[in-house]
Specification:
Arc Repressor Mutant, subunit A, 3-stranded antiparallel β-sheet, 7% strand
């Protein structure tokens, strides 16, 4: 499809170009391992489908950057169309759930997603969240792990379906969140250092107080002198006299 001259509108919109583009869109949507559609949408002959096959173009947009709710609205708006085009609704529905999960992970600055939030976005029972979390990791869209005790999915890495102004804003929000977290950690470390220093000073003062009370301090004949040593010194002085 890239061999068609993008500057030649007649060639891009030709029957052959549209046939190949439509076939590519169908294959991409139905493929269980194809998830990123930005490059496909950038091809001029595929863009031309918005005029010749508007419904397919709309469906491609949904798979490229929208969510399960949008796909459900599409099906309501074009009731029976998916079946008429011999597209597998179950496959499409499952794929949209995975893509929706990826979008949710990308849009969560804290990188911690509650099970309930995932269940709502994917329109599934809460008990099924862990299975879908495993599926999205296997699909390579998200890297993370489950925290069953906290009821959280912890995101380590996520693949952006598209990267535009919205994604830049999400990334900026995440960077701000990380910066705030690091500042909090540094604040805690500094406070702990201050507390440790103060504790050490208190311990030294307490030790000096105890030594002075036991006659071992500077005010009891010099640092480190024991009472027996002081008595022996006085005895030698008397003998010398």
């Amino acid at each position: 499809m890239r061999t068609f001259d993008s500057d030649d509108k007649e060639e891009v919109t030709s029957e052959e170009a549209q046939r190949l583009s439509l076939r590519a869109v169908k294959m991409a949507i139905l493929s269980p391992s194809y998830f990123l559609y930005q490059d496909l949408r950038a091809i001029p002959s595929v863009q031309a489908l918005s005029d010749s096959h508007a419904v397919y173009s709309q469906l491609l947009d949904i798979f490229a950057e929208q969510d399960l709710e949008d796909y459900n609205d599409f099906n309501e708006e074009h009731e029976g169309w998916v079946e008429a085009q011999k597209l597998d609704h179950e496959k499409l529905h499952r794929k949209m759930r995975l893509l929706t999960f990826a979008s949710l992970a990308a849009a969560t600055p804290s990188r911690e997603i509650e099970y309930g939030k995932i269940a709502k976005a994917l329109q599934i029972p809460r008990d099924d969240v862990e299975r879908w979390a495993i599926d999205i990791i296997r699909a390579g869209l998200v890297e993370g792990k489950l925290s069953q005790q906290r009821g959280m999915f912890l995101v380590h890495k996520v693949t952006y379906r598209v990267f535009g102004q919205k994604q830049y804003q999400e990334l900026a929000t995440r960077v701000d969140h990380w910066r705030a977290t690091l500042q909090n950690v540094l604040g805690v470390l500094r406070q702990e250092q201050t507390n440790a220093k103060a504790q050490k000073e208190r311990e030294v003062q307490e030790l000096e107080r105890k030594m002075t009370g036991a006659g071992l301090g500077p005010g009891a004949g010099g640092p480190g002198r024991r009472p027996q040593q002081q008595a022996a010194q006085r005895e030698r002085t008397d003998n010398d006299d």
